[in-house]
Amino acid sequence: MTKYNQLAIQWEFIISKIKSSVTVVDATLPEFPLMFVNEYFTQLTGYSAEESIGQNCRFLQGPETDTDTVKQIREALEKQQSMKIDILNYTKNGQKFWNELNIDPIFNESGECLFFVGIQYDISERKYAEQQLQMAASLAEMNSRGQLEFIGKLNHELRTPLNGIMGMIELISMGESSDEQKEYLELARESGEALLNIVNNSLDMAKLGRGKMMLEQIEFQPLKLVQQIIKTHEPAAQNKQIRLLCHADLNLPDVLTGDPLRLRQVLDNLLSNAIKFTEQGEVQLQMDVEEHRGDMVTLVFTIRDTGIGIPDTQINHLFEAFTQTDVSHSRKFGGTGLGLTICKELLELMNGQISVESVEGKGTKFEVTLPLLRQQAIPNVG
Question: What is the 3-class SS of the chain, one letter each residue?
Fold first, then answer.
């Protein structure tokens, strides 16, 4: 018994020397006054034990202490529950410091709560580091938005004269000209279209980055949309002497609601790439109904080609901005590497997704899954 009595006497000495703030609160009184504080508490707060005993811990709070945090602590005490929370407190000389507060109720054998033991860790340095990181992230975001704003404005300014140049090239092409002049005009037209495509892609990236891309929710005919897309790409496929095929599910609804302009932008980009990177064989667009659920219809658009394919090492980076599978491809085929990034971003805005499978040298398959709202059939669908 003597050994255990000696140990019991030593506990107060041990707690007083712990390098963490320890407090004991009287849970039997409505104000929950402090009845014990250790030496580290007095060092941390600047208040002596005599100044602290008998006071509620509120005396450490100040003007910037979060009232919601205080409310949560009060509720835990009233419910006699354990809790862990961060709180901003003030020392005797008014200096702010952050506490990680751990509170535990102590009950007697009959279940009556007698004390609350609080162990507080000074986490001021950690909080300061978190604030610095948050500030740095905010500044980086502001700089990024500023850059995107600048890119957006610059590209708007570029697009206006570019459209004028393209218009003049078309007008000159209508007049009489030699074969050599026609060749130069065609080169100028292709260069202008490539530059306009870069400007348009940059504008889309700027809008997406700033959260300014707006989507429409209008009725459209999916079959008619796909037919129009295929017609647009037929000349390019014929010039390369490759087959351009299209298949549609017979269960395809006549009318759906969504953003046909952005859907067309995605499919145009994927078909354009498929034709661009296919030297022989075929490119195929297939449209299937994957799921009917109430008024929602999930469509799957599959674009297959027999082109150069994508190396395994590059396929995971395919949807990153400015990424192309090979530097030589940008010289041979052109492009900025923004198209697939924009497709992925647009589809995510529309609650859709895109995936890719490829075998280098044999071809690539892109699969676009998109949920759309089904409408009642309209007459003269075509």
Answer: CHHHHHHHHHHHHHHHHCCCEEEEEECCCCCCCEEEECHHHHHHHCCCHHHHCCCCHHHHCCCCCCHHHHHHHHHHHHCCCCEEEEEEEECCCCCEEEEEEEEEEEECCCCCEEEEEEEEEECHHHHHHHHHHHHHHHHHHHHHHHHHHHHHHHHHHHHHHHHHHHHHHHHHHHCCCCHHHHHHHHHHHHHHHHHHHHHHHHHHHHHHHHCCCCCCCEEECHHHHHHHHHHHHHHHHHHCCCEEEEEECCCCCCCEEECHHHHHHHHHHHHHHHHHCCCCCEEEEEEEEEEEECCEEEEEEEEEECCCCCCHHHHCCCCCCCCCCCHHHHHHHCCCCCHHHHHHHHHHHCCCEEEEEEECCCEEEEEEEEEEEECCCCCCCC
